[in-house]
């Protein structure tokens, strides 16, 4: 390298050392660094009604009332379709009570208290999960 | 004065002991730096969603075709229970070109039963199907029932316009700044724009966007994609989907971080 | 010293050098993949490839940019400089995987050409935060491509060392573009104080090293000169080590004054190959040997020994009371000068 190239190097790095920190400052000054906090999952509504039974697994929490069942889907299911069935003591699906989609709280009317709840994928015809009271 | 070391590549043994020590130290430092980089850049990634794109798996679905205004198939998933599956084309394109063959036979496919093989895309209760071949769309010999629209009224939402193909499965992450130009390409290519919203209890809802007449809207929303916005519009419920009729002039870009994780 | 051009003239040092590069790159990808799939099993393979290779290229670029100033500050780093181009080409390939996959994922299979899409899908050119950051990465990749493609002595000789060096100094532009690409792209969404801090520390280290080297060089360039009837005073004979040189600054050029076999000879300091500092070289087998890649010149005429054909300028010296004086007017490259005996 000759003197002029050395000078170019020096000028380049002096300007980089001034411009880049300013750029970095402006690009990150409005960023939120604390977004790592865990998102809360849906919370059950405080109900005045009499709770008959509750059951919970990794996907959902179910609360059985006299005339309806509340399902709290904790996080998105990894399924193309999710049908809710009442289930017998072995978890075998009996009767369709509805379908669930996004994570959240669902209420379904029931005639008689079921022994359990089963979720089925209606497109793939596979069991997603079941829960027994 | 100690003899200065001088390395020449073609002189055997010219790599001096001190130089060797420096080089070894440098290699170890670089290796440490490299592994630290690998760990930091991989560990501090935001959690990925459990969205799914069945790239290598084909599923056949049968249901009633309707355009409301985007192509969808109303599929019976259990007795008396239906799911509306949004139809998409290959790559960043609409499903419409794949229906041209059938449109040549039948003037209007609205309400006809179709059987389609494609790749499922699904996340958080929404399901879509990618059609890769017009030959895999078959017209069945009957008519079906299209879903009824239910008018819900004018509402204001905060959320982000996303392209549903990537958001619900094809890409991770399929939203936000990193993904913006891809979403622009998808929606420009005819994939319906969707407004994704999350309320304070982390409950998500999704709205297919149309213009005020209920017609497809694509190019008009391109500059708002992937930016947290406030959108006013008229909501219709279409079984398991919502339609939001908007005037793009009423989209307000909010200067805040995305909250649609 | 090229008579004919081979793709790579291998030797055991280069082989070992390249082995370390390959193993480190592989290790990076493996660690990245294991950590990702352990802590984030829902990640997709495309995203993993894009992120792993993109971040690998950045890590490698930091190492590449540190080698230059390190070897100016301490000549024990010179052997790393010697084969730096292999590191550069490997880094380009990592960046290419990142860019190629991103280009396909985000811009292919659409309604317009992917290159057009790259520039036109996000039109927020007047915003800092929403700026189309992919364009910045693309421009950096073009620079890295131009550099990787010309990373060979064939281009070095045919473009001339000066033009070649100019072209390769674009790596600094690429570095700045990549910083902007990352800060306006991934860091806006994948915000973590650790990754952002890592690159800020990297920047402080790299710019600090370059500035330190630049100011060290400036010291040599700004020494004062004393004149005596048109001849310029250099130093005493004792100040130069045997078989070594003193680098002396004339108006715009540096000269290397060598002391060997009881003789003194001066040649232009810049090697014809890549512009290496001949004055930091050594006399080996009677030849001035460049510290960068071992190119050789005869001290008395500035010519490479046959069959090689490189030539550098020579200078006349004069000795008066054990003090060396130099005639500042360079002689034509390869001109024979009678050495000064002391």
How would you explain this protein's 3D organization?
The complex is a heterotrimer of chains A (133), B (261) and C (342). By secondary structure, chain A is of the alpha+beta class. Chain A folds into two domains: 1-32; 51-132, Immunoglobulin-like (Sandwich), CATH 2.60.40. Chain A is 20% helix and 38% strand. Chain A has a four-stranded antiparallel sheet, with no helix packed on it. Chain A has a four-stranded antiparallel sheet with strand order 5-4-7-8, with no helix packed on it. The longest helix of chain A is centred in the first third of the chain and has 26 residues, at 3-28. Chain B is elongated and about 90 Å long. Chain B has helices spanning 17-43, 100-105, 164-170, 176-188, and strands at residues 52-53, 59-67, 71-78, 81-88, 112-123, 126-130, 137-143, 149-162, 194-198, 204-210, 229-238, 241-253. Helix content of chain B is 20%, strand content 38%. By secondary structure, chain B is α+β, with helices and mostly antiparallel strands. In chain B, a hairpin with a 2-residue loop joins strand 3 (71-78) and strand 4 (81-88). Helices cover 50% and strands 14% of the residues of chain C. Chain C contains eleven helices and twelve strands. In chain C, the strands form three sheets. In chain C, strands 3, 4, 5, 9 and 12 form a five-stranded antiparallel sheet that branches. In chain C, strands 1-2-11-10 form a four-stranded antiparallel sheet, with no helix packed on it. In chain C, strands 6-7-8 form a three-stranded antiparallel sheet, with no helix packed on it. Chains in contact: A-B, A-C, B-C. At the B-C interface, helix 1 and helix 4 of B face helix 1, helix 2, helix 3, helix 4 and helix 10 of C.
């Amino acid at each position: 390298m000759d003197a002029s190239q050395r000078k170019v190097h020096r000028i380049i790095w002096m300007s980089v050392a001034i411009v880049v920190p300013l750029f970095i400052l402006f690009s990150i000054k409005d960023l939120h660094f604390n977004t790592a906090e865990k998102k809360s999952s849906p919370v059950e509504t405080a109900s005045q009604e009499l709770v008959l039974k509750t059951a919970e697994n990794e996907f959902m929490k179910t609360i059985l009332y006299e005339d309806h069942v509340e399902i709290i889907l904790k996080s998105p299911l990894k399924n193309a379709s999710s049908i809710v069935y009442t289930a017998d003591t072995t978890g075998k699906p009996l009767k369709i009570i509805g379908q669930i989609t996004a994570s959240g709280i669902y209420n379904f009317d029931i005639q008689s208290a079921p022994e359990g709840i089963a979720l089925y994928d209606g497109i793939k015809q596979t069991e997603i999960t079941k829960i027994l009271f | 004065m100690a003899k200065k070391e001088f390395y020449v590549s073609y002189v055997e043994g010219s790599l001096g002991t001190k130089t060797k020590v420096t080089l070894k130290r440098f290699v170890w430092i670089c290796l440490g730096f490299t592994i630290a980089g690998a760990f930091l850049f991989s560990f501090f990634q935001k959690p990925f969603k459990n969205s799914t794109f069945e790239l290598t798996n084909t599923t056949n679905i049968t249901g009633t075709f309707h355009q409301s205004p985007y192509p969808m198939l109303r599929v019976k998933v259990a007795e008396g229970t239906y799911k509306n599956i949004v139809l998409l084309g290959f790559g960043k394109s609409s499903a419409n070109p794949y229906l041209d063959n059938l449109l040549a036979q039948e003037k209007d496919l609205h309400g006809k039963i179709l059987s389609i093989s494609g790749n499922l895309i699904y996340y958080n209760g929404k399901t879509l199907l990618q059609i890769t071949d017009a030959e895999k769309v078959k017209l069945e010999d009957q008519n079906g029932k299209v879903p009824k629209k239910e008018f819900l009224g004018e509402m204001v939402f905060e959320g982000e316009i996303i392209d549903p193909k990537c958001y619900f499965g094809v890409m991770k992450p399929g939203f936000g700044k990193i993904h913006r130009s891809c979403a622009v390409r998808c929606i420009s290519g005819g994939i319906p724009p969707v407004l994704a919203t999350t309320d304070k209890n982390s409950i998500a809802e999704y709205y297919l966007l149309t213009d005020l007449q209920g017609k497809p809207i694509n190019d008009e929303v391109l500059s708002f994609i992937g930016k947290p916005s406030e959108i006013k519009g008229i909501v219709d419920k279409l079984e398991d989907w919502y339609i939001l009729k908007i005037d793009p002039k009423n989209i307000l870009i909010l200067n805040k971080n995305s909250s649609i994780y | 010293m090229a008579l004919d051009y081979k793709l790579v003239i291998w030797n055991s040092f280069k082989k070992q050098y390249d082995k370390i590069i390959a193993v480190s790159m592989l290790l990076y990808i493996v660690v990245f993949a294991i950590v990702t799939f352990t802590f984030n099993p829902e990640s997709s393979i495309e995203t993993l490839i894009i992120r792993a290779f993109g971040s690998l290229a950045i890590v490698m670029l930091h190492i590449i940019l540190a080698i230059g100033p390190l070897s100016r500050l301490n000549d024990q780093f010179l052997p790393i400089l010697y084969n730096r181009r292999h590191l550069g080409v490997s880094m380009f390939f990592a960046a290419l995987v990142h860019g190629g996959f991103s280009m396909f994922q985000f811009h292919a299979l659409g309604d317009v050409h992917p290159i057009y899409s790259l520039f036109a899908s996000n039109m927020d050119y007047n915003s800092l935060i929403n700026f189309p950051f992919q364009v910045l990465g693309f421009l950096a990749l073009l620079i890295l491509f131009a550099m990787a493609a010309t990373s060979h002595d064939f281009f070095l000789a045919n473009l001339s060392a000066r033009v070649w060096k100019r072209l390769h100094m674009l790596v600094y532009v690429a570095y700045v573009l990549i910083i902007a690409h990352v800060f306006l792209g991934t860091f806006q969404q994948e915000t973590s104080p650790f990754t952002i801090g890592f690159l800020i520390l990297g920047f402080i280290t790299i710019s600090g090293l370059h500035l330190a080297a630049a100011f060290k060089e400036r010291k040599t360039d700004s020494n004062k000169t004393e004149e005596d009837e048109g001849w310029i005073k250099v130093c005493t004979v004792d100040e130069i080590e045997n078989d070594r040189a003193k680098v002396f600054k004339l108006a715009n050029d540096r000269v290397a004054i060598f002391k060997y076999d009881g003789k003194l000879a001066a040649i232009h300091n810049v090697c014809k190959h890549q512009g290496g500092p001949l004055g930091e070289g050594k006399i080996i087998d009677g030849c001035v040997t460049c510290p960068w890649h071992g190119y050789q010149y005869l001290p008395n005429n500035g010519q490479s020994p046959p069959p090689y054909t490189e030539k550098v300028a020579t200078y006349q010296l004069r000795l008066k009371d054990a003090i060396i004086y130099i005639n500042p007017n360079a002689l034509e490259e390869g001109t024979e000068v009678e050495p000064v005996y002391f």
